[in-house]
Specification:
GO biological process, one term: purine ribonucleoside salvage
Distance between the termini: 14 Å
CATH architecture: 3-Layer(aba) Sandwich
Function: ATP dependent phosphorylation of adenosine and other related nucleoside analogs to monophosphate derivatives.
Strand content: 15-25%
CATH class: Alpha Beta
Strand order of the largest sheet: 5-4-1-8-9-10-11-12-13
CATH superfamily: Ribokinase
Pathway: Purine metabolism; AMP biosynthesis via salvage pathway; AMP from adenosine: step 1/1
Order of helices and strands: EEHHEHEHEEEHHEHEHHEHHEEEHH
GO molecular function, one term: ATP binding
InterPro entries: Adenokinase, Carboh/pur_kinase_PfkB_CS, PfkB_dom, Ribokinase-like
Number of domains: 1
C-alpha cells in the first residue's frame, strides 16, 4: 500500500490549453482561447506523470508536486485542477511572470505543441529549501523529474538527487526531448550518476547516443549503455526504460534486456497522442512505489498510455480499470 507523500515530482507546470483545430489554424495559434472550444488541463511533463500516478493509486495525497506558477487566472485554474486530481501541490507563486501555458493543437489525432514557459522558468531552489517544502522531500521515498526541469533549476535537481543518494531513496528522471540531450548535455551528465531509473523514447535515446559518440542507433544497445553509466550510489543498479510508440518497451537492468509489447490500438480509436509518454511513466511509477516487479510497472505504464491516447489531452476516466 502506498502511503501519503511517497512520490514527489518537480518540474515545469504548464496549463495545457487543448483543442481540436484545423490545418489553417496551426499557422496562427494566437486566437485559440477565443475561437475554439478549449479544455484546461494541469500539464507540463512531470505534472502529467504525477497526476496519472495519483489516479492509479487512488490514495489522496500519495503524490506531491513542486513547480512555479504565476498569480493569475491560469494559476488558479492549475491549482483547482491539481487539487481535484488529489495531488498535494506546493507551487512557488511568482509575482512578476504569468503562469506557463502550452497550446495543444490536435489535428487528426496528432498533436502540435506551442509552449510558453513564462513563470515555470522562474523556479528557485530557495523555495525548495523552505521547511514546509523540504518536508515533502524528507517524506518522499521516490522522486521523479522530467529532463525539461534541467533548463530551469539544475541546483534544485542536484539537492534532491543528493538527498536521495544519501538516504537510499529512488531518484528518477526522463530524457524528455532531443534538445535536452543536445543542448543541456553537461547538466544531464552531472545528474545522470544519481538516476536509479532513466526514462525516454526511441528518438531521445538515439539523440543521446549520437551526442555521446556511441555510433549506434540500436535502441536496445543504447538502453544497456544508459543503464551501465557510472552511478553515485551503488546500492541499486540503474534501470533504463525506453518506449517506442507502438513498438515494444525496452528495459535494461543489470546487464540484461527485456522487451514488453504495448497494447495495440486501432487507428480509428486514437484521439490524441499528447501526454502518452508522460502517462506511461505515471502508470509505471504507481506500481514502483508499491514495490511491484518491473513487469507490473511496465504493464501499468502500457495501460495508462493506452487510456490517455483514447481521450483528449492527458486526462483519464474517474477510476482506473487496472488489476
Amino acid at each position: 500500500m502506498a502511503q501519503e507523500g511517497i512520490l514527489l515530482g518537480m518540474g515545469n507546470p504548464l496549463l495545457d490549453i487543448s483543442s481540436v483545430v484545423d490545418d489553417d489554424f496551426l499557422n496562427k495559434y494566437d486566437e485559440m482561447a477565443s475561437k475554439y472550444n478549449v479544455e484546461y488541463i494541469a500539464g507540463g511533463a512531470t505534472q502529467n506523470s504525477i497526476r496519472v500516478a495519483q489516479w492509479m493509486l487512488q490514495i489522496p495525497g500519495a503524490t506531491s508536486y513542486i513547480g512555479c506558477i504565476g498569480k493569475d487566472k491560469f494559476g488558479e485554474e492549475m491549482k483547482k485542477n491539481s487539487k481535484l486530481a488529489g495531488v498535494n501541490v506546493h507551487y512557488y507563486e511568482d509575482e512578476s511572470a504569468s503562469t506557463g501555458t502550452c497550446a495543444v493543437c490536435v489535428v487528426g489525432g496528432e498533436r502540435s505543441l506551442v509552449a510558453n514557459l513564462s513563470a515555470a522558468n522562474c523556479y528557485k531552489s530557495e523555495h525548495l529549501k523552505k521547511p514546509e517544502n523540504w518536508a515533502l522531500v524528507e517524506k518522499a521515498k521516490y522522486f521523479y523529474i522530467a529532463g525539461f526541469f534541467l533548463t530551469v533549476s539544475p541546483d534544485s535537481i542536484q539537492l534532491v538527487a543528493e538527498h536521495a543518494a544519501a538516504n537510499n531513496k529512488v531518484f528518477m528522471m526522463n530524457l524528455s526531448a532531443p534538445f535536452i540531450c543536445e543542448f543541456f548535455k553537461d547538466a544531464l551528465e552531472k545528474v545522470l550518476p544519481y538516476m536509479d531509473y532513466i526514462f525516454g523514447n526511441e528518438t531521445e535515446a538515439r539523440t543521446f547516443s549520437k551526442v555521446q559518440g556511441w555510433e549506434t542507433d540500436d535502441v536496445e544497445e543504447i538502453a544497456l549503455k544508459l543503464s551501465q553509466w557510472p552511478k553515485a550510489s551503488e546500492i541499486r543498479k540503474r534501470t533504463a526504460v525506453i518506449t517506442q510508440g507502438a513498438d515494444p518497451v525496452v528495459v535494461a537492468q543489470d546487464g540484461k534486456l527485456k522487451k514488453f509489447p504495448v497494447i495495440v490500438l486501432p487507428k480509428d480509436k486514437l484521439v490524441d497522442t499528447n501526454g502518452a509518454g508522460d502517462a506511461f511513466v505515471g502508470g509505471f511509477l504507481s506500481q514502483l512505489v508499491q514495490e511491484k516487479p518491473i513487469e507490473e510497472c511496465v504493464r501499468a505504464g502500457c495501460y495508462t498510455s493506452h487510456v490517455i491516447i483514447q481521450r483528449s489531452g492527458c486526462t483519464y476516466p474517474e477510476k482506473p480499470e487496472f488489476n
